[in-house]
Amino acid sequence: CSMPIRTNFELGLLLAVVGCGGAAAQNDSKLGPTEPVITDVERYMPLKADTVYAFETSIENSGEKGVLMMHVDRPRANQAVLVVGGKAQRLEIEKQGIRLSNGGWLLKAPLSVAAQFKGQFGQVVIRSTDATVDTPAGRFTGCVETIEESTAVQKRVTTVFCPDIGIVALDAEGTIGDDFGRERAVLRSYGPRVDINSLPAGK
Protein backbone atom coordinates (compact mmCIF):
# COMPACT_ATOMS: atom_id res chain seq x y z
CA CYS A 1 0.00 0.00 0.00
CA SER A 2 1.06 3.62 -0.26
CA MET A 3 0.68 6.43 2.20
CA PRO A 4 1.86 10.04 2.46
CA ILE A 5 5.04 10.64 4.38
CA ARG A 6 3.31 13.09 6.71
CA THR A 7 1.54 10.17 8.42
CA ASN A 8 4.72 8.52 9.58
CA PHE A 9 2.98 7.20 12.66
CA GLU A 10 1.00 5.07 10.22
CA LEU A 11 4.32 4.22 8.63
CA GLY A 12 5.40 2.98 12.05
CA LEU A 13 2.48 1.77 14.10
CA LEU A 14 0.14 0.87 11.27
CA LEU A 15 2.90 -1.04 9.49
CA ALA A 16 4.64 -2.49 12.52
CA VAL A 17 1.42 -3.16 14.40
CA VAL A 18 -1.74 -2.64 12.38
CA GLY A 19 -0.47 -2.92 8.82
CA CYS A 20 -1.71 -1.68 5.48
CA GLY A 21 -5.16 -2.28 4.15
CA GLY A 22 -6.71 -3.37 7.43
CA ALA A 23 -10.48 -3.47 7.52
CA ALA A 24 -12.67 -2.14 10.26
CA ALA A 25 -12.72 -4.51 13.21
CA GLN A 26 -15.69 -6.70 13.92
CA ASN A 27 -16.66 -7.00 17.53
CA ASP A 28 -16.63 -10.74 18.10
CA SER A 29 -15.20 -10.63 21.60
CA LYS A 30 -17.80 -13.11 22.87
CA LEU A 31 -16.36 -15.94 20.80
CA GLY A 32 -14.05 -17.23 23.48
CA PRO A 33 -12.21 -16.68 26.77
CA THR A 34 -10.21 -13.49 27.19
CA GLU A 35 -7.79 -14.49 29.95
CA PRO A 36 -4.89 -16.47 28.45
CA VAL A 37 -1.82 -17.56 30.34
CA ILE A 38 0.56 -14.59 30.39
CA THR A 39 3.86 -15.41 28.71
CA ASP A 40 7.10 -13.47 29.20
CA VAL A 41 6.52 -11.72 25.88
CA GLU A 42 2.88 -10.93 26.60
CA ARG A 43 3.89 -9.21 29.82
CA TYR A 44 5.41 -6.50 27.61
CA MET A 45 2.32 -6.34 25.39
CA PRO A 46 -0.55 -7.44 27.67
CA LEU A 47 -3.36 -6.99 25.10
CA LYS A 48 -6.08 -6.86 27.74
CA ALA A 49 -9.58 -6.81 26.32
CA ASP A 50 -11.22 -3.37 25.99
CA THR A 51 -8.07 -1.45 26.91
CA VAL A 52 -7.77 1.95 25.24
CA TYR A 53 -4.43 3.70 24.67
CA ALA A 54 -4.10 7.37 23.76
CA PHE A 55 -0.84 8.49 22.12
CA GLU A 56 0.36 12.04 21.61
CA THR A 57 1.88 12.30 18.15
CA SER A 58 4.20 14.89 16.66
CA ILE A 59 5.49 15.28 13.10
CA GLU A 60 9.03 16.58 12.95
CA ASN A 61 8.81 18.20 9.50
CA SER A 62 5.69 20.29 10.09
CA GLY A 63 5.52 20.51 13.88
CA GLU A 64 1.97 19.18 13.67
CA LYS A 65 0.68 17.50 16.82
CA GLY A 66 -2.23 15.16 17.38
CA VAL A 67 -3.69 12.28 19.35
CA LEU A 68 -4.11 8.72 18.13
CA MET A 69 -6.28 6.13 19.86
CA MET A 70 -5.66 2.39 19.95
CA HIS A 71 -8.22 -0.12 21.20
CA VAL A 72 -7.63 -3.77 22.11
CA ASP A 73 -10.21 -6.48 21.48
CA ARG A 74 -9.78 -10.15 22.46
CA PRO A 75 -11.99 -12.47 20.39
CA ARG A 76 -10.15 -15.51 21.76
CA ALA A 77 -7.49 -16.31 24.32
CA ASN A 78 -4.88 -16.80 21.60
CA GLN A 79 -5.98 -13.90 19.41
CA ALA A 80 -6.17 -10.13 19.76
CA VAL A 81 -7.34 -7.34 17.49
CA LEU A 82 -5.74 -3.89 17.55
CA VAL A 83 -7.82 -1.06 16.13
CA VAL A 84 -6.05 2.19 15.21
CA GLY A 85 -7.73 4.91 13.22
CA GLY A 86 -10.48 2.59 12.04
CA LYS A 87 -8.02 -0.03 10.77
CA ALA A 88 -7.62 -3.39 12.44
CA GLN A 89 -4.89 -6.00 12.68
CA ARG A 90 -5.30 -9.46 14.13
CA LEU A 91 -2.50 -10.72 16.31
CA GLU A 92 -1.82 -14.35 17.20
CA ILE A 93 -0.52 -15.01 20.72
CA GLU A 94 1.85 -17.95 20.69
CA LYS A 95 4.44 -19.41 23.07
CA GLN A 96 7.23 -17.81 21.04
CA GLY A 97 5.62 -14.38 21.07
CA ILE A 98 3.01 -12.19 19.40
CA ARG A 99 2.69 -12.68 15.66
CA LEU A 100 0.94 -10.47 13.13
CA SER A 101 -1.65 -12.45 11.21
CA ASN A 102 -0.49 -10.92 7.91
CA GLY A 103 3.14 -11.84 8.45
CA GLY A 104 6.03 -11.14 10.80
CA TRP A 105 6.28 -10.76 14.55
CA LEU A 106 5.38 -7.84 16.77
CA LEU A 107 7.51 -9.16 19.63
CA LYS A 108 9.26 -12.52 19.92
CA ALA A 109 11.30 -14.43 22.46
CA PRO A 110 14.00 -14.49 23.56
CA LEU A 111 13.81 -10.99 25.02
CA SER A 112 17.55 -10.45 25.14
CA VAL A 113 19.81 -7.72 23.80
CA ALA A 114 20.83 -8.29 20.16
CA ALA A 115 18.17 -10.97 19.59
CA GLN A 116 16.60 -10.68 16.14
CA PHE A 117 13.37 -11.70 14.46
CA LYS A 118 11.41 -10.93 11.31
CA GLY A 119 8.98 -8.04 11.64
CA GLN A 120 6.32 -6.96 9.21
CA PHE A 121 8.53 -4.98 6.83
CA GLY A 122 12.08 -5.61 8.02
CA GLN A 123 14.43 -7.19 10.51
CA VAL A 124 13.82 -6.41 14.17
CA VAL A 125 16.66 -6.18 16.71
CA ILE A 126 16.20 -5.88 20.46
CA ARG A 127 18.38 -2.93 21.48
CA SER A 128 17.63 -2.87 25.20
CA THR A 129 15.78 -4.84 27.87
CA ASP A 130 16.18 -2.19 30.55
CA ALA A 131 15.13 1.01 28.82
CA THR A 132 13.62 3.98 30.66
CA VAL A 133 11.22 6.35 28.94
CA ASP A 134 9.38 9.46 30.12
CA THR A 135 5.90 10.03 28.67
CA PRO A 136 2.86 12.15 29.57
CA ALA A 137 1.48 8.96 31.16
CA GLY A 138 4.49 8.71 33.47
CA ARG A 139 8.00 7.30 33.66
CA PHE A 140 8.40 3.65 32.74
CA THR A 141 11.44 1.49 33.49
CA GLY A 142 12.64 -2.00 32.68
CA CYS A 143 11.30 -1.74 29.13
CA VAL A 144 12.19 -3.61 25.95
CA GLU A 145 13.28 -1.39 23.05
CA THR A 146 13.22 -2.76 19.51
CA ILE A 147 14.35 -1.38 16.17
CA GLU A 148 12.80 -2.58 12.92
CA GLU A 149 14.62 -1.50 9.82
CA SER A 150 14.52 -2.16 6.09
CA THR A 151 16.97 -0.54 3.71
CA ALA A 152 14.94 -1.83 0.76
CA VAL A 153 11.97 0.35 1.65
CA GLN A 154 13.92 2.89 3.73
CA LYS A 155 11.88 2.61 6.90
CA ARG A 156 13.02 2.49 10.52
CA VAL A 157 10.78 2.10 13.55
CA THR A 158 11.90 2.20 17.18
CA THR A 159 9.34 0.87 19.65
CA VAL A 160 9.41 0.71 23.44
CA PHE A 161 7.37 -1.99 25.18
CA CYS A 162 7.03 -1.68 28.95
CA PRO A 163 6.04 -4.40 31.43
CA ASP A 164 2.33 -4.69 32.19
CA ILE A 165 1.60 -1.69 29.90
CA GLY A 166 2.53 -2.42 26.28
CA ILE A 167 3.71 0.14 23.72
CA VAL A 168 4.57 3.44 25.41
CA ALA A 169 6.71 5.14 22.76
CA LEU A 170 7.29 4.81 19.05
CA ASP A 171 9.54 6.68 16.68
CA ALA A 172 9.01 6.14 12.94
CA GLU A 173 11.03 7.55 10.11
CA GLY A 174 11.27 6.86 6.42
CA THR A 175 11.80 8.13 2.93
CA ILE A 176 9.35 8.21 0.06
CA GLY A 177 11.09 9.42 -3.09
CA ASP A 178 13.24 12.37 -2.06
CA ASP A 179 11.14 13.20 1.01
CA PHE A 180 12.21 12.19 4.50
CA GLY A 181 9.74 12.22 7.38
CA ARG A 182 9.76 11.40 11.06
CA GLU A 183 7.00 11.11 13.61
CA ARG A 184 7.04 10.26 17.29
CA ALA A 185 4.25 8.94 19.46
CA VAL A 186 4.28 8.75 23.25
CA LEU A 187 1.70 7.34 25.60
CA ARG A 188 -0.63 9.92 27.12
CA SER A 189 -3.08 7.62 28.90
CA TYR A 190 -4.31 4.05 29.00
CA GLY A 191 -6.99 2.08 30.77
CA PRO A 192 -10.24 0.17 30.36
CA ARG A 193 -12.77 1.50 27.88
CA VAL A 194 -15.63 3.36 29.52
CA ASP A 195 -19.15 2.90 28.14
CA ILE A 196 -20.83 6.25 28.66
CA ASN A 197 -24.24 4.57 28.22
CA SER A 198 -23.64 2.55 31.38
CA LEU A 199 -22.96 5.60 33.55
CA PRO A 200 -25.65 6.59 36.05
CA ALA A 201 -27.96 9.39 34.94
CA GLY A 202 -26.63 12.84 35.72
CA LYS A 203 -22.97 11.79 35.61
Commentary on this structure:
The protein has 203 residues and is mainly beta. Helices cover 7% and strands 51% of the residues.
List the helices and strands and how they pair.
Elements: H1 8-18, H2 40-43, E1 51-59, E2 65-76, E3 79-84, E4 87-93, E5 97-100, E6 105-108, E7 116-118, E8 123-135, E9 138-150, E10 155-162, E11 166-176, E12 179-192
Antiparallel strand pairs: 1-2, 1-12, 2-3, 3-4, 4-5, 5-6, 7-8, 8-9, 9-10, 10-11, 11-12
Note the gap between the termini.
Answer: 44 Å
Number of helices: 2
The counted number of beta strands is: 12
The main β sheet shows up as: 12 strands, antiparallel
Structural class: mainly beta
Quaternary: single chain
- Low-confidence segments, given as residue ranges, are 1-36
Kindly state the percentage of residues in helix: under 10%
Mean pLDDT, all residues: 80
Radius of gyration: 17 Å
How do the strands of the widest beta sheet line up side by side? 6-5-4-3-2-1-12-11-10-9-8-7
Cα shape = globular
In short:
This protein is mainly beta and 203 residues long. The chain is 7% helix and 51% strand.
Keywords, separated by commas or semicolons:
7% helix; disordered N terminus; 203 residues; 12 strands; mainly beta
